[in-house]
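User: Before I run my own analysis I want an independent prediction to cross-check against. Here's the chain; please return only the structure tokens and, at the end, one sentence I can use as a sanity check.
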Amino acid sequence: MNKEINGGQLFWGTFLLTGGSLFFAYRFEYLPYDWSFIWDIWPVALILMGVIIILKNTVAKPVISILLGIFVAVIAFGVFAEITFDDYEYRYYGDHNRSSRYIDNRNEIAESWSDDIKFAELEVKTGASRVRLTDPTSDLIKVDSRGFLSDYYLDKDISDGIASLELGLIDKDVELFDEPGSNRLDIKLNSKPVWDITLKMGAAESYLDLSDFAVKKLELKTGASNTSLVIGDRQERLDLKISIGAAALKIKVPDGSGCRIEGKMILMVKDLDGFNKIGDNHYVTENYDESEKKVNIKIDGGVSSLEVLRY
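Assistant: Structure tokens:
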């Protein structure tokens, strides 16, 4: 006679499967390094445990047991990550040669600048990488990639004063048990044109300082990630669209710019400095209506941490 699987079996089975998958992904550096958001979302585990007690002996209990197993495994791995991972500044800017996990493959790509260019579009497609977009360059774009996954292509179409650029990883055969690399992608852009930027990233750490650039539209699509974004005020209006998974996101917005935030923010921990709530998942700064410069942020996110600061 077949015995019915109980909630404990489902919990521990799911916990071990999820935990093992996370550690396996960590072994090959497919996960972000910053898991500080777990300290904000751990109470969800208590909520799920309470739901299991309430729904005992119902058909919903097995589903909740599976969800609890996944969530507790994520929390446990997050605690491990916070204890064992090095400081972010050292990881990103330090001497990578000190780490045997770093494979120093390096590639550089550049596209020269033309004074005819007034508007530029950039789409970036990358996987598990540490992405940095900061300082201006005299070229239209300059790319420096390092690590195991460092082979990128740059497609371009320049006509009628508009430059369309696509930067992405070249398909590469990866042996499952090769020594993993620590992948970096540094991007520099010219500060003269108006930019539309789309970033599609997997498990990534990214630091995006756009204060020197006139950005009209920015779209960010990312999975498990840690992203810091600095917005400037060179453009009258910036439309920022963000789709994120389990992520930590920090955004800095100039004091003189009015800012509005709205969207679907499920289980998202929010720290919004200087914002007033005017509706469900809808926040604005007091100076939004009268400000000449405006930043409109639309977010679609799951279990995440969002912090917006004024500077």
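Sanity check: Confidence is low (pLDDT under 50) at residues 86-104, 173-181.
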